[in-house]
Design a protein that fits this description.
Layout (H helix, E strand, L loop, with lengths): L7 E6 L6 H15 L3 H21 L7 E8 L2 E8 L27 H9 L2 E7 L2 E9 L2
Antiparallel strand pairs: 1-2, 2-3, 3-5, 4-5
Helix pairs in contact: 1-2, 2-3
């Protein structure tokens, strides 16, 4: 008997915060098909929202749509966002926020990526010929 096919989905979205409701609908439909439990959905949606909005706001040079790939790989959810014709932006190099400092002593920015890195289990990055891809993994078990 052949192994069951693990669900995958891919779609591009206009580089605008207005795309977020459509992205969440796309993800929700995938979660149902892939059997992703509710408890894992919020961290993944938060991570996608944070990364997508950062690509929209700060992706230097980007004018094309942003590609979102979702894959259920056994007990893992693999999510990639790819931005085209942009400069390198590896969120793994963003310094961690010192959340122990008083609010008056903190610098603005970076908290969303800080939280993203703590809500997923692994973050990867690849940059080839102006194509910037951030991949994160969320364990589902």
């Amino acid at each position: 008997m052949a192994d069951p096919i693990e669900p995958t989905a891919q779609r591009t979205f206009p580089r605008s915060a207005a795309s977020l409701p459509e992205i969440f609908d796309f993800m929700d439909a995938f979660f149902v098909r892939a059997g992703v439990a509710n408890e894992h959905r919020m961290p993944v949606q938060f991570a996608v929202e944070e990364l997508f909005t950062n690509l929209v706001k700060y992706g230097r040079g980007g004018t094309r749509e942003i590609q979102l790939d979702l894959e259920r790989d056994g007990g893992r959810l693999v999510v990639s966002l790819t931005d085209f014709d942009v400069e390198r932006f590896d969120i793994r190099t963003v310094p961690n926020v010192n959340v122990d400092l008083d609010l008056k002593d903190r610098k603005p920015g970076g908290l969303g990526i800080h939280l993203l890195k703590r809500m997923v289990d692994d973050v990867g990055y690849e940059y080839v010929d102006g194509r910037s891809t951030t991949t994160f993994i969320k364990r589902l078990e």
